[in-house]
Amino acid sequence: MSSFGRMFRISTFGESHCRSVGVVVDGVPPRMALSADDIQVQLDRRRPGGNKLGTERNEADQVQVLSGIENGLTLGTPIGLMVNNKDQRPGDYGSMSQVPRPSHADYTYQMKYGIHASSGGGRSSARETIGRVAAGAIAEKYLLEQYGIEIVAWVSSVGDYDTDNVDMDTISRAEVDANDIRCPDVEAAEKMTAEIVAARAAKDSVGGVVSCVCRNLPAGLGEPVFDRLEAMLAHAMLSLPATKGFEIGSGFSGARMRGSVHNDPFVKKGERLGTTTNFSGGVQGGISNGEPVYFRVAFKPPATIGQAQKTVDFDGNDVELAAKGRHDPCVVPRAIPIVETMTALVLADLVMLQKMRE
Ligand SMILES: Cc1cc2nc3c(=O)[nH]c(=O)nc-3n(C[C@H](O)[C@H](O)[C@H](O)COP(=O)(O)O)c2cc1C
Questions:
Q1: How far is ligand 1, taken at its centre, from the CA of residue 31, in Å?
Q2: What is the distance in A from the centroid of ligand 1 to the CA of 289?
Q3: From the CA of 125, how far away is ligand 1's center (Å)?
Q4: What is the reported pLDDT for 75?
Q5: What is the mean pLDDT of residues 42-71?
Q6: Distance from residue 57's CA to the centre of ligand 1 (Å)
Q7: Which H or E run includes 309?
Q8: pLDDT class for 92, splitting at 50, 70, 90?
């Protein structure tokens, strides 16, 4: 469905080539200072058309505030946010409307609804994430102002090139944005950039991984048993288009370790207990323990490629498809604000649920 969250609840709307995309955000506390500029910052980071690593579709993605904010303060009522689609070119998809793109969502949407948007992926397009990013920017502001919670994501791999060389205790968004690829390890960033440029030149695409850290989280967030913190993060991340995997803390590498190495021993850290290592990724029993929460999200190579592929049309006739249109050769640089804001939506909801117990 198109709604997410309970206390901090969003409902997104819109398709890739319709008039507008947007979101209704319910549960934002009243009397919070909030402007369109606060929301625009993350939309600008998500926006296409910025550089050679992303799609050539050029959208300003200027947010319009429809409701819920007056004189710079939230009213506690639903906040309506909208962005107009401007650079649509449905004509690019003419020949493709009869052919379901391999590994895109055309076939499954047609099977589910008996109809599918004729161009641009419709609702399955990453244009839909604009609503999430706009709503998540509000959640981030709330979390930072009320709890000092910081969320920072970066590109940790593209194709075969990756980096472990990022300090999760200090990494900042400014450091991440220092290059177009959004990888703070300069050496790795150069190789990743070359890989995307090469994929684009070959009319192909390439996958990658986004890492994310959340700092200053209080202990106690997460609602066992079904809404454990890691389960909510996994739900949020795997609801993003093109995601193929989610790992928290030691992740799959933890399965190869012994307990004597993997356990995170407790120590006194000021007024609370902390741990000397953090293989748990800041979550134990589905509840935050006060250590940084960190996780990774795997994104596949985008499905729409200019290279000719043998496939069949909706009637089963053999065809060769060389996709037209403007497409991202790799989604991870643009996925950074999307991962951060989805994380904020999960945390704001869990913070509010925990506050009900106080
Ligand atoms: C930021 C971002 C940009 C994307 N850009 C494209 C694109 O240009 N071309 C494409 O085929 N898929 C793109 N995708 C992925 C598709 O939306 C997605 O693969 C498709 O909806 C099918 O869903 P699935 O891959 O989750 O099965 C993008 C995803 C994200 C997160």
A1: 37
A2: 34
A3: 6
A4: 98
A5: 88
A6: 14
A7: strand 309-312
A8: low
Nearest Cα to 245, choosing from 301, 298, 300?
Answer: 298
Structural domains of the chain, ranges and CATH numbers in brackets: 3-355 (3.60.150.10)
Output the CA–CA distances (angstroms, integers) from residue 308 to 16, 203, 324, in the order listed: 24, 9, 10
294 close to 282: Cβ distance less than 8 angstroms? yes
Pocket of ligand 1 (CB under 6 A): 55, 104-105, 121, 124-126, 240-242, 300, 302-304, 327-328, 331, 334-335, 338
Is the per-residue pLDDT at 186 higher than 70? Answer: yes
The answer to whether 271 touches 257, Cβ cutoff 8 Å, is no
d(CA 88, CA 99): 20
* Ligand 1 atom with the shortest distance to the CA of 101: 11
Give the Cα separation of 129 and 127 in Å (integer).
5
Mean pLDDT of 107-123: 90
Q: Which residues pair with 272 in a beta bridge?
A: 269
Give the SS3 label for residue 26. strand
Instruction: Decide: helix, strand or coil at residue 227.
Output: strand
Distance 206 CA to ligand 1 centre (A): 12
pLDDT of res. 121: 87
Mean pLDDT for the stretch of residues 24-35: 98
Residue 111 identity (one-letter amino acid): M
- CA-to-CA dists, residue 28 to 76, 135, 340, 345, angstroms: 6, 10, 18, 11
Provide the token pair at 92: 């690019």
SS percent in the chain: helix, strand, coil, step 5: 30, 25, 45
Strands 150-158 and 208-215 turn out to be: antiparallel
Query: Which residue owns the Cα nearest ligand 1 atom 8?
Result: 327
Tokens of 64: 């319009």
User: From CA 126, how far away is CA 276, in angstroms rounded?
Assistant: 39
